[in-house]
Amino acid sequence: MKKLPLHLQIIIGLVLGLAYGILSSASGWSSFTSDWIAPFGTIFINLLKLIAVPLVLCSLITGVASLSDLKKLSRIGGKTIAIYLVTTTIAVTLGLVLVNTMQPGNQVPEDMKIQLQETYRDKAESRAGSAQEVKERGPLQPIVDMVPSNVFQSATSNRNMLQIVFVAILMGIGLIQIPENRSKPVLAIFEGLNDVIIKLVDIIMLMAPIGVFSLIAQTINKVAGNDLGQVLELLSALGFYMLTVIIGLVVHASLTYNGILKIYSSMPLSFFYRGIAPAQLLAFSTSSSGATLPVTMERCEDELGVSEEVSSFVLPLGATVNMDGTALYQSVAAVFIAQTLGMELTLVDQLTIVLTAVLASIGSAAVPGAGVIMLVIVLEAIGVPSAGIALILGVDRILDMMRTVVNVTGDATVAVAIASSEDQLRQTME
Predict the structure, then answer these.
(1) Which of the given ranges, 45-59, 181-195, 265-279, has the highest pLDDT on average?
(2) Of the candidates 24, 413, 409, 13, which has an alpha carbon nearest to the alpha carbon of residue 218?
(3) Residue 367 three-state SS
(4) Is 306 helix (H, G, I), strand (E, B) or coil?
(5) Is residue 429 assigned to a domain?
(6) Distance CA 110, CA 112 (A)
(7) CB contact at 8 A, 14 and 285
(8) What angle do CA 161, 317, 397 make, to 5 degrees?
(9) Is the separation of the CB atoms in 217 and 38 below 8 Å?
């Protein structure tokens, strides 16, 4: 019997998890799901996070060192960052156009607004406190934070991924600068470690269908508890806001990413999306582009034909700084909250959202829920009460899953574009 492709296995796990989650909520199995189902999802995510730091470190070092000279590094790096910034700006602008056109904030009933604010008041205050700490830092603090004083301490947390990226690039540049007979043994160690990590990805992905099943079931369990009517009521009240975000994500992926693929490569869209599908499905279930990174790299190299040289540089960088879906969501959410609270935003406020959301998305950690914390910064920048995030927290997890898919798709798109422009795109299409 022919084995089902990985993406079909993940889809089956996702559908079964959705069905079980609804059944669990309707039948009052919330405690059983938390105790006996959810742990498998946690184990799966932990396994992916386990290899995230060593993967970024090894792949970036080998990727930078393999570029052989600083001119090549600056050329590829410059193109990568430029495309990332352009796509993020497009995403924010698109979000603003849609939210101002559709006006989702005017669709929420007054009594529901009050109920949502009361329900999620504590969570909103907690997120606001975290964001205030970020806001109070100096203007150059993000650059300071990027340079670690202890690389081993940085490696203890996936939230310090930008520091790991900095160290890896620095070490790669160092390897380029020394004689080949000295750099080759060091490079061989990191290349060997990278190969081992990629093999571990294959092993871990055997658990993907079970992990996805558990994650989806637990997500529904958290939102609904033992009352399915609660989630249906919430989705109904915030449905128009969710629809606005979803339309924005779909349009951005369809126009921006497909446009980049058409401009920079001859790769058929069907081939691209079929190749990247397992990474997209994993991004949907984990809500973490960082946790999805190992699979994204594997699919880009093995299925899409992106060279390891380009993949190992572009994708880890993208998982850290390219958050198009998050940026679009922040722009829609900020205006939605303002509309709901009856606040008018000026053109200057809207331009402030563009600038702040772009910068905030770059600084967002590639982990679930980080976008909400950065949203508070966007709200504060335009004078909207940060407590307003209470209005959207109930559906944030669902939207987090969707925007992570866009983030991962954007990373893969840019990797294909850069590889094609550098003549490093292997023709694997049948």
Answers:
(1) 265-279
(2) 24
(3) coil
(4) strand
(5) no
(6) 5
(7) yes
(8) 65
(9) yes
Among left, alpha and beta (phi > 0; psi -120 to 50; other), residue 339 is alpha
Lowest mean pLDDT among 71-75, 177-181, 298-302: 71-75
Q: Which whole number is the average pLDDT over 88-104?
A: 92
* pLDDT higher than 50, residue 1: no
Tell whether 331 is covered by a domain: yes
Domain membership of residue 73 as a residue range: 6-421
**Mean pLDDT score of the chain:** 81
CB count, 10 Å around CB of 42? Answer: 13
Q: Based on the structure, what is the number of domains in the chain?
A: 1
37: buried, middle or exposed (CB in 10 Å: 19+, 13-18, 0-12)? buried
For the record, the structure tokens of 98 come out as 């849609």
Q: At residue 222, what is the residue type?
A: K
d(C-alpha 266, C-alpha 264), whole Å:
7
Comparing C-alpha atoms, which of 393, 395, 397 is closest to residue 367? 397
Query: Phi and psi (nearest 5°) for 366?
Result: -85, 55
Q: At what angle do helices 393-421 and 269-286 cross, to 10 degrees?
A: 140
Residue 69 forms part of a structural domain: yes
150 occurs within a structural domain: yes
pLDDT digits (tens, 9 = 90+) for 29-88: 888 988 999 899 888 878 877 877 787 788 778 777 776 667 877 888 889 889 998 999
The torsion region of residue 5 among left (phi > 0), alpha (psi -120 to 50) and beta comes to beta
**Cα atoms in the Cβ-side hemisphere of radius 13 Å centred on 61:** 23
Query: How is residue 405 written in tokens?
Result: 């898919």
Q: What is the pLDDT of residues 381-406, one digit of tens each?
A: 787 776 677 677 667 778 888 999 99
CA–CA separation, 126 vs 341, rounded Å? 20
Task: State residue 61's pLDDT score.
Answer: 84
User: Residues 207-237, buried b or exposed e (16+ Cβ, 10 A)?
Assistant: bbbbbbbbbbbbbbbebbeeebeebeebeeb
CATH number at 369 reads 1.10.3860.10
**DSSP category for residue 366:** S
pLDDT at site 136? 64
